[in-house]
Amino acid sequence: MPQIRKANKPEAEPAAPAITEAEWTILKVVWKKHPCPAGDVQEALAKIKGWAYSTVKTTMDRMVQKGLLNTHSIRSLQLFTPAITEAQAQRNEIFKTIKRAFDGALTPMMQFLLENEKFSEDDLKQLRNMVDKAQKAKSKE
């Protein structure tokens, strides 16, 4: 039976706020365009989401309160920058999902993905290479 390994999230890292779907959408724009005013974000999302400026601005103001965005003003223009990196947000989301759906265990998560997703030969080759690389790094410790 394979050994079940728990995801090793550092304990010193503060708990990140939950990110809603709307916040993910806004963060993706801000990561690419920062620093940017809310109007630029609304313009970038207008065609795909149809959100009004007030919706985007209100959501971004809440994201500042949650610690997801930073803001500073130049004259009367309020500019937003990300308070977390894309990698930090992805990492936090993955760890929350692994903890919630797989009790923090990586092996059952990987087994689930391998059994339920359609991986191409190239995907599987890349996964094998990643596992080989991780094993080599582990053996050097």
Give a short overview:
The chain has helices at 21-33, 38-49, 53-66, 86-102, 106-116, 121-139, and strands spanning 69-74, 77-82. The protein is 61% helix and 9% strand.
What are the key terms here?
141 residues, mainly alpha, Arc Repressor Mutant, subunit A, two-stranded antiparallel sheet, 6 helices, elongated, disordered N terminus
Number of beta strands: 2
Strand content: 5-15%
Mean pLDDT: 89
At the first level of CATH, what is the class of the domain at 21-82? Mainly Alpha
Read across the widest sheet, the strand sequence of neighbours is: 1-2
Structure description:
This protein is mainly alpha-helical and about 140 residues long. Among the domains are: about 60 residues, Winged helix-like DNA-binding domain superfamily/Winged helix DNA-binding domain (Arc Repressor Mutant, subunit A), CATH 1.10.10; about 35 residues, no CATH class. About 60% of the residues lie in helices and about 10% in strands. A two-stranded antiparallel sheet has the order 1-2. Helix 1 packs across helix 2 and helix 2 packs across helix 3. The N terminus is likely disordered.
Give me the secondary-structure topology.
Blueprint: H1 21-33, H2 38-49, H3 53-66, E1 69-74, E2 77-82, H4 86-102, H5 106-116, H6 121-139
Helix pairs in contact: 1-2, 2-3
